[in-house]
Design a protein that fits this description.
two-stranded antiparallel ribbon
Length: about 350
Amino acid sequence: MSELLTLEQEFLSAIEAANDLPTLDEVRVSALGKKGKISALMQGLGKLAPEDRKTHGQAINAVKQSVAGAIEERKTRLERDALNIRLQTEREDVTLPVRGAPVNQGRIHPISQVWEEITEIFADLGFAMAEGPHIETDENNFTKLNIPAEHPARQEHDTFYFNEKEDGSRRVLRTHTSPVQIRTMEQEKPPIRIIAPGRVYRCDSDQTHTPMFHQVEGLVIDKETHMGHLKWVLEEFCKAFFEVDDVTMRFRASHFPFTEPSAEVDIGYSKKGDELLIGGDENWLEILGCGMVHPNVLTNVGLDPEVYQGFAFGMGIDRLAMLKYGMPDLRAFFAGDMRWLKHYGFSVLNTPTIAGGL
Ligand code: PHE
């Protein structure tokens, strides 16, 4: 009998010492499992004399009960402790403000948005996309566009020049997207119908000018193209872009060395407080220059002006964005102010399409 009590004591202290559930379960198996010590004692009862069986049986049963009870108790305690540790370490502060997912927080800059809108409209009109480098040769930016050295237009463009090379040539930060006309005509055979959006640079800064801004160049070269086509394309573009039927456009006779005849186009708008509203003829904002490609330019790229003509235009993307979205100061576009971007920026998920609306 004292053996039985020692066994009980052994198990009870093993149970007390078990600091986690797996260890506790090991103790349970060694005591009450099929091959456990207490189960073995129970099985041994059969070999005893009948008169001893009852008393022994009761004693073993009592030990079994006490060990099982102790295991149950210990298990409950260990589980409660584990839960308390989780509650403490996995605490959430539900009073913290909810943070939006990146896709909801990010904004598309109005210039990127307008850039997409413009390319979408011209793609619909059948124009392909062309590109050129920001650092251009003097040749492509000026000479081949019929702006020879010493031509006053070079000064008008407030050019950022690079240092002269040993051979006397100088590279420039392109002052307009028109050099992409040259690159395209040198690489492709007519008919040509491209637009080329991109950054351009001029040493100039005030409310409507910044040293870096964005233009989109358009070029169409074919055997039968005239000013009527140019005007139609620009009108279609403006109606689609501003999403109104009554855009007021003003074609003013102008001069560019690379087009003849040339025109500048203004868009009519009115001011309401700090905002700009499209339409009417109260104020005008110049948005583009255009004209028929000058015969000298065609000759410079190896096209016969007796066979081919075409038209070109260059629009200010930033100016178009200002007008469409009523943003009065161009400089704010490049200030990198998050509050401005949150107010004027566009949702990442809002992609402009002709069908879905711009
Ligand atoms: N490149 C001219 C400018 O930046 C715009 C223009 C492009 C004019 C094409 C006529 C034709 O002012």
